[in-house]
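> forwarded from #structure-qc
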């Protein structure tokens, strides 16, 4: 007995909007966590993702619930000066930006001041190191003045920011440093004012501590700038002006110079040798060679002539040409590439999510540990090990309260959430930028991290393993149709799509000098074929299986014979008189590096599978040529999805390979029929020459082309993308091991673990130096990715 299905009601999901903010003032991963919390707690906010290196916050919120201006104002009041990015192409506009030279001069001035104060403070102790006592500099009041100036001048910003962060309940690295320096300064002031206490003055500690920290941050900033340099260079490729000329105008005409963002689609633009293309366009006059290395990673110039496409930001090397604008502003390939790279650097890898979560509570934990260290040594440690109060590392007697305070301060300043927060984003920044330079666009750090687990890779055939530019080899019509009529009908029906087979049919009609009859009412059936009304006749073009579903039978024997040779047979069905019209066979050559790509993947232990919508004979012939053993032919889009799902669940047993196990599956494709499988796969790669649907669905887009042919994708980039992912994750792992290991070892040593037995004590100044250089080490290690990935 069957029951009637229950009525279901679907509620439309609320529309979401994205607000992008530039956020300044973040010092460590704790700041990142604090900013994300401040954004996420607002009503209507669905998600907030903040990147420490790029200083960008991306907020997804329900439409109409909150204004981006309010979010920026909220962060500004909390000590993180913020402003809105009003458009995706904001980085391409000529709007005024803060003067970087001024900021650099200010940093250098603070560092120089701190260095001078540190030098004077050190010279005041010259006699303790066997040198002569320097007049005036060995006076305690001079050391007080030096420490006071260190706090008021170079240290003022750190102390104010640290206090403000503590006030708002979001303590950061500056909070820890401020607590350490102020504690040392105030304790020394008490010792100076009340000498009867017998306390030691250590005014040199604030000056030395701030000097080392500012030096470390300067080096860290330079290293971070080097890591972001690739993206900045990409942004700088967009020319500021364009030379507009009239249509049909001569190249000798100078034209009108206007801002590049004011060029409209359809305008003609003149580009001289040595100039960069200001917009995407199609060459209408002249010919030249173009350097497209910024887009594809290939240094060899590409020949361009009338009808060829050029991309904004690429360099015209030889002849003067005119182009008709096809895309401007944030629609250009360059702008979309920049937006994609920026988005990738904002998306967090799982490891970074964990690190940011830990860092969000790091400052609280360190302050608790420092308090516990002070209480332990003052209440118990100095009584259990009285020898630590005199002689040895201390160079003389010291009051228990001062020893306890010094150890607590050392714990405050040696702990480094910066290294933890920089570990993942710096590696991802370098990895994604390096990929962009080589024509590998990776849409997120999470994708880079996932590549390391890949063990199965599925390839589509047409346009992926093959060039995607097939040519017609056979045409067999059925009376009353002729070969030319058959080509005309097929090309007219296919002219509404950009599929490689459609392009081949249209090109064949052009070579035969045929005029295409008018066509309309195009309808694409993914994985099956296309239908259209051609000159008043309903025409369907598609696979043999699709033809059979329509009750029409083709010349199966001939088609199978051609298929066994690796040719793809296109069957033409015409509804006139309800009969089969004939078939057209096309041959699609393999990409020159297809076999090498498959072999290198197999050498890495990755199983390569071919899944194609083509016939068994064609798919098997191609698979045999490249060395793929496992083939699934005749796969419609839904079948491709099912194959991916079965592999992921471990339900597919390969003959002779034993019990199946769940797989991490990657998919490489280029067509509309690949998009569902690309979405389902754990890692998806699309070729830049493919459809927009495939590129939108993919996590990695391969832009590289071979030097000899502009539209021939370099398939070996699949291997390079995987190697880049492995190298990037290797750096992430090294950075996290260092960051976690550093804090796990440094904090106990600063807390005095080695003091009773070995007499080893880290002074606050030494602790500050170690903290400052720990984050520099993480960023520098990420930069080594460029040297290791070749």
């Amino acid at each position: 007995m069957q029951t009637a299905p229950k009525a279901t009601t679907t509620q439309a999901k609320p529309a979401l909007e994205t607000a992008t903010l530039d956020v300044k003032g973040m010092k460590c991963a704790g700041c990142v966590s604090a900013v994300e919390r401040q954004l996420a707690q607002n009503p209507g906010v669905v998600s907030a993702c903040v990147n420490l290196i790029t200083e960008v916050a991306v907020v997804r919120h329900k439409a109409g619930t909150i204004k981006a201006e309010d979010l920026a104002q909220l962060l500004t009041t909390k000590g993180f000066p913020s402003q809105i990015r009003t458009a995706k192409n904001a980085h391409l506009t000529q709007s005024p930006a803060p003067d970087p030279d001024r900021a650099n001069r200010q940093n250098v001035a603070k560092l120089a001041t701190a260095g001078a104060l540190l030098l004077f403070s050190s010279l005041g102790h010259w006699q303790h190191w066997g040198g002569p006592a320097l007049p005036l500099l060995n006076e305690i009041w001079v050391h007080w003045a030096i420490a006071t100036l260190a706090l008021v001048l170079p240290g003022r910003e750190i102390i104010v920011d640290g206090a403000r962060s503590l006030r708002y309940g979001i303590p950061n690295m500056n909070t820890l440093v401020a607590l350490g320096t102020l504690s040392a300064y105030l304790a020394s002031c008490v010792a100076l004012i009340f000498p009867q206490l017998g306390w030691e003055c250590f005014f040199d500690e604030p000056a030395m501590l701030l000097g080392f920290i500012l030096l470390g941050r300067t080096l860290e900033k330079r290293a971070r700038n080097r890591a972001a340099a690739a993206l900045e260079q990409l942004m700088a490729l967009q020319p500021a002006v364009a030379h507009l000329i009239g249509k049909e105008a001569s190249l000798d005409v100078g034209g009108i110079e206007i801002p590049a963002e004011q060029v409209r689609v359809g305008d003609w633009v003149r580009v001289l040798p040595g100039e960069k293309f200001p917009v995407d366009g199609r060459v209408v006059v002249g010919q030249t060679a173009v350097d497209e290395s910024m887009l594809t990673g290939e240094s060899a110039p590409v020949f361009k002539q009338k009808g060829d496409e050029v991309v904004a930001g690429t360099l015209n090397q030889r002849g003067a040409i005119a182009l008709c604008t096809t895309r401007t502003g944030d629609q250009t390939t360059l702008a979309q590439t920049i937006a994609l790279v920026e988005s990738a650097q904002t998306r967090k890898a799982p490891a970074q999510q964990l690190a940011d979560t830990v860092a969000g509570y790091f400052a609280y934990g360190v302050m608790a540990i420092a308090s516990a260290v002070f209480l332990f040594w003052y209440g118990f440690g100095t009584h259990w090990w009285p020898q630590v109060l005199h002689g040895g590392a201390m160079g003389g007697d010291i009051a228990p309260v001062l020893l306890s305070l010094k150890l607590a301060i050392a714990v405050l300043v040696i702990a480094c959430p910066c290294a933890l927060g920089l570990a993942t984003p710096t590696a991802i920044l370098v990895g994604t930028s390096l990929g962009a330079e080589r024509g590998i666009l990776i849409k997120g750090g999470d994708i880079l991290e996932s590549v390391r687990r890949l063990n199965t890779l599925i390839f589509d055939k047409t346009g992926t393993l093959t060039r995607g530019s097939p040519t017609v080899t056979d045409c067999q019509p059925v009376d009353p149709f002729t070969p030319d009529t058959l080509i005309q009908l097929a090309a007219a029906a296919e002219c509404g799509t950009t599929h490689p087979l459609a392009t081949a049919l249209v090109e064949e009609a052009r070579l035969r000098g045929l005029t295409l009859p008018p066509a309309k009412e195009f309808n694409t059936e993914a994985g099956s074929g296309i239908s259209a009304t051609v000159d008043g006749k309903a025409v369907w073009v598609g696979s043999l299986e699709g033809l059979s579903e329509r009750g029409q039978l083709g010349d199966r024997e001939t088609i199978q014979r051609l298929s066994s040779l690796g040719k793809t047979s296109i069957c033409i069905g015409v509804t006139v008189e309800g009969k089969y019209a004939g078939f057209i066979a096309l041959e699609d050559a393999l990409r020159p590096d297809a076999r090498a790509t498959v072999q290198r993947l197999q050498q890495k232990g990755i199983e390569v599978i071919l899944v194609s919508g083509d016939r068994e004979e064609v798919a098997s012939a191609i698979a045999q040529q490249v060395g793929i053993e496992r083939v699934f032919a005749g796969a419609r889009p839904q079948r491709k999805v099912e194959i991916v799902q079965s592999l992921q669940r471990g339900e597919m047993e390969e003959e002779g390979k034993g019990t199946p196990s769940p797989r991490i599956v990657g998919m490489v494709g280029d067509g509309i029929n690949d998009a569902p499988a690309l979405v389902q796969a754990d890692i998806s790669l699309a070729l830049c020459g493919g459809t927009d649907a495939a590129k939108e669905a993919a996590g990695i887009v391969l832009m590289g082309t071979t030097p000899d042919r502009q539209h021939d994708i370099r398939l070996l980039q699949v291997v390079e993308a995987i190697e880049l992912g492995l190298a990037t994750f290797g750096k992430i792992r090294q950075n996290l091991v260092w960051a976690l290991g550093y804090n796990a070892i440094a904090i106990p040593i600063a807390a005095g673990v080695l003091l009773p037995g070995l007499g080893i004590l880290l002074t606050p100044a030494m602790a500050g130096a170690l903290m400052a250089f720990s984050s520099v080490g993480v960023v520098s290690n990420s930069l080594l990715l460029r040297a290791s990935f070749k």
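QC bot note: The longest helix spans residues 717-750. Residues 387 and 718 are 64 Å apart (CA to CA).
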